[in-house]
Write a structure and sequence with these properties.
The structure holds 2 protein chains of 2 kinds.
Chain A (H helix, E strand, L loop, with lengths): L1 H14 L24 E12 L7 E11 L4 E12 L18 E14 L5 E13 L13 E11 L3 E12 L10 E10 L12 E13 L3 E2 L2 E2 L5 E14 L2 E14 L8 E12 L2
Antiparallel strand pairs in A: 1-2, 1-14, 2-3, 3-4, 4-5, 5-6, 6-7, 7-8, 8-9, 9-12, 10-11, 12-13, 13-14
Chain B lengths: L1 H13 L9 E10 L4 H12 L4 E7 L4 E6 L7 H10 L3 E11 L1 E4 L2 E6 L4 E5 L6 H11 L7 E9 L7 E10 L2
Parallel strand pairs in B: 7-9
Antiparallel strand pairs in B: 1-3, 1-4, 2-3, 4-8, 5-6, 6-7, 8-9
Helix pairs in contact in B: 1-4
Classes of the chains: A mainly beta, B alpha+beta.
Chain lengths: 285, 175
């Protein structure tokens, strides 16, 4: 019966035409270290977007991600996109550390290779990520051939009841097909999280914390028919607030990132990025 | 005081029956390090509740403790509980336990055998309180199959690999 309820909930979330969003019990946009426990499952449904100067430049997408903890330190995730609005000329990037903005199915393996408790409620840990993305479309909206890509990332940080600090970085590179290749994206992120004293409630009360996230990313110019595309790629630094609410097996997180610097090689500027993520955790072991 | 009573306890226990009719953990209050969020606590609770014989699980983030109560007749081991904590991604530390069983003598030391699950808990007589000693002394003159409840802190037994000591134990007869 409990199994049926889980399947029904999963189907409901996947079938939602629009709704919540995606990246676990860490920050919204930046890289982080937590992985699921052994036999732990997590279903994320994210609604994320980048808004430009006009509606033609806006990008919105729903993405569903399912993750499972193979061991207490190894996690595998798969995510699938439901595009809502695809811009023609916005620079490519990677809006969330664990999720691509392309119309790609993506699989990521996470290995928390270092974990050290620092007392009852604190630990230091580091995680590396490796993944692949397979396009679900033949051509991107700008006419470039969609090609598979690989993704590597790493994050390290400190976790406690009071403070969270993570720094991370990642790299995504696409394969070349028929002279087409999207520019490689490199990103770095820094996250500071704080749980105010009044919100340090004991389980099973709700758990709310706030983050300030900063992301810097650089995307190289893409290649079309073997020629470098002048109006492609770019660099940006974005900063913004996010929040995460956890209650038993449910999580809800949301946040905004605002550009403090951008250089888009002639492409439209971003006004802000947003993401709302709903998580459901369940356990089979 | 404790040191003077220790030999008396050893003597007393040597007269007790070497086998135990029924002994088991009734409560394990285990300290967990590295647990920071509500979902972490929930994961530990859900996993512990899946162990056959576990009745209730209460997890406190503030105290960094999981308080696990077992049903009568359970065969839950301390290692099962520690494994649940490890598999959830956290570090199990010391545990306060309540064991119901009869005292036996094992290797010259007083012990509580948890039947059927191959775990022997050594009672550290030098750190046990006087009332515990008195109770065991009383037990010598009573029914040797008397069931006692031992509450104390679990630590690895010094010099006895694979065994666990109950230190600062309190012992009381329950029948």
């Amino acid at each position: 019966m409990r199994q049926l309820r889980r399947i029904a909930l999963l189907m409901l979330i996947v079938a939602m035409p629009r709704g919540a969003s995606a990246s676990g019990h860490g920050p919204v946009f930046g890289g982080a270290t937590p992985t699921l426990g052994r036999g732990g499952w997590q279903l994320d449904q994210v609604w994320m977007g980048r808004l430009g100067n006009g509606s033609r430049d806006d990008e919105q997408m729903l993405r569903t991600m399912i993750s499972v903890g193979l061991t207490e330190d190894i996690q595998i995730s798969g995510s699938f996109p439901i595009p809502l609005q695809t811009p023609i000329y916005m620079p490519r990037g990677r809006p969330m550390a664990l999720m691509s903005a392309n119309q790609d199915a993506e699989g990521i393996l996470a290995w928390r290779f270092q974990r050290r408790p620092l007392g009852p409620n604190a630990r230091l840990e580091s995680t590396v990520y490796g993944g692949m993305a397979i396009p679900l479309e033949e051509f991107r909206k700008d006419g470039m051939r969609a090609t598979p890509s690989m993704y590597v990332a790493a994050a390290t940080g400190y976790v406690s009841r009071e403070h969270y600090v993570w720094v991370g970085g990642g790299y995504q590179r696409s394969a070349e097909m028929s002279g087409d290749r999207a520019g490689a994206t490199t990103f770095v992120s820094a996250v500071y999280g704080f749980r105010p004293p009044a919100l340090r409630l004991d389980y099973p009360k709700p758990d709310l914390r706030f983050f300030v996230e900063a992301v810097g990313e650089h995307t190289e110019r893409g290649q079309h028919h073997g020629f470098e595309m002048e109006f492609s790629g770019g660099s940006a630094v974005l900063v913004g607030p996010t929040a995460l609410l956890l209650y038993k097996e449910y999580g809800l997180e949301a946040g905004l990132l605002f550009p403090v610097y951008q250089q888009n090689n002639g492409l439209p500027n971003e006004r802000f990025r947003f993401a709302i993520n709903f998580s459901y955790f369940f356990w089979m072991r | 005081m404790h040191l003077r009573l220790a030999p008396a306890l050893l003597t007393a226990l040597s007269f007790l029956a070497p086998t135990v009719a029924s002994a088991e953990f009734r409560r394990i209050e285990i300290t967990i390090h590295g647990m920071d969020c509500a979902t972490c606590a929930h994961a530990v609770r859900v996993a512990a509740l899946k162990i056959d014989g576990v009745e209730t699980v209460t997890v406190s983030l503030q105290r960094a403790v999981a308080d696990i109560r077992m049903r009568e007749g359970n065969r839950v081991t301390i290692e099962q509980i520690r494994q649940v904590v490890r598999r959830s991604g956290f570090t199990p530390r010391e545990a306060n336990v309540t064991v119901v069983g009869s005292a036996i003598e094992r290797g010259g030391a007083p012990a509580i055998a948890v039947s059927g699950i191959d775990e022997v808990l050594i009672v550290d007589v030098q750190r046990s309180d006087a009332s515990a000693l008195k109770t065991v002394e009383d037990a010598r003159n009573a029914d040797p199959s008397v069931v006692s409840e031992v509450t104390g802190m679990l630590k690895p037994a010094a010099g006895q690999p694979g065994q666990i000591a109950i230190t600062t134990a309190r012992v009381r007869r329950t029948q």
